[in-house]
Amino acid sequence: MKQPVIFFFLVISMLQVCAQPDKTIHELPELKAVFEKYRMSGTIIILDRGKNELVGYKPALWDSSYLPASTFKIVNTLIGLETGVIDTAYVFKWDGRKRRISDWDKDLTLTEAFRVSCVPCYQELARKIGVDRMTRYLRELNYGHMDVHPENIDLFWLEGNSRITPRQQVDFLNKLYDEKLPLSLSVMKSVKAIMINEKTPEYSLSGKTGWAIRNNNNYGWFVGYFESAGKVYFVATLIEPNDQQQVSDFALARKTITMDVFRILGWIR
Fold this sequence. Notes:
This protein is about 40% helix and about 25% strand. It is α+β, with helices and mostly antiparallel strands. The strands form two sheets. Strands 1-3-2-9-8-7-6 form a seven-stranded mixed sheet, sandwiched between helices. It has a two-stranded antiparallel sheet with strand order 4-5. It has helices at about 1-20, 30-35, 75-85, 110-115, 120-140, 165-175, 185-195, 250-265, and strands spanning about 25, 40-50, 55, 90, 110, 195-200, 205-215, 215-230, 230-240. The protein contains eight helices and nine strands. It has a single domain (about 25-265), classed as DD-peptidase/beta-lactamase superfamily (Beta-lactamase).
């Protein structure tokens, strides 16, 4: 009797997959002006679940892969909390070393470390998690393609062969928002609270920036989700400066471009 039962569930699973309509894709050429305004090139992908569509700019880049950089702090936090090596009250103790970002030169709570994107804090967290647990959870979370081994446990998201695409970023955030990842509900709720960037009477924005250098080229992320008027939109923005020697406005542009796109779409004033 086992074979017919297994076959039945396989058929049901296939029917469910087939029943899910493909998302329509709408490229918005007018978004080119936003990138040009800040002298950046790149792409943006937005999942509108209400319309079951993907909108944005340069969809040909949505499946190109890049280092996750500090957007990986979302996953690092999830795994750290799930394994119990930290909790939401955890404090990263400053080691006294001066670093390039002064906000890192002090003791930081988990929420503070996330919001100032403290690299040494999250390197400490990755070492606490360790290669075996990190690899296992990354596989279970189906998060991009992360190349983790003992020699790079505190660097693999910043340099090397780890990769994730803009589309994969959006898909992962969609599952996190719905609390459908194979993690404790309390952990997912805690990380979603930590991710909040802005909260106004009109909207809420949650997410994380990232900055990486590959082949001497700077590129940066903003990934997250935008909630307004009872709707939620998932976004991954990836940018590169047109002039790689001029990066003074680059850090702000990652989120600013994203917000300008939301304004063009009429989601915020």
